[in-house]
C-alpha cells in the first residue's frame, strides 16, 4: 500500500514520530486504528455501512434467484 502525503503532512508526521520517539509506520498504524475505531461508533457511518451490506445482499439474491 502506498500513501501519498503533501510535504506539509510528511513534515508534521515526521515531527510527531520524532517527538514520540516512534517509527513513522507505528504513528501511521495508530492513526488508522483510531480512525477506524471512531468510525465504528459513528451512527452516520454505520448507516452507510448497513446500506452497502443490504445492497450487496440484494445483488447476491438476484444472482441466486
Shape: elongated
Helix content: over 70%
What is the residue-mean pLDDT, rounded to a whole number?
95
Tell me how many strands there are.
0
Ends distance: 37 Å
Q: Give the radius of gyration.
A: 18 Å
Structural class: mainly alpha
Largest sheet: none
Q: What percent strand?
A: under 5%
Please tally the helical runs, counting DSSP H or I stretches of 4 or more residues.
Answer: 3
Give the uncertain stretches in residue-range form: none
Name the helix and strand elements from N-terminus to C-terminus, one letter apiece.
HHH
Textual characterization of the structure:
The chain is an all-alpha fold and 65 residues long. The protein has a domain at 20-64. 82% of the residues lie in helices and 0% in strands. The protein has 3 helices and no strands. The chain has helices at 7-20, 24-40, 43-64. α1 packs across α2. The model has no long low-confidence stretch (mean pLDDT 95).
Topology readout:
Elements: H1 7-20, H2 24-40, H3 43-64
Task: Put the structure in a nutshell.
The chain is mainly alpha-helical and 65 residues long. Helix content is 82%, strand content 0%.
Considering the chains and any ligands shown, give keywords for the structure.
65 residues, mainly alpha, 3 helices, 82% helix, 0% strand, elongated
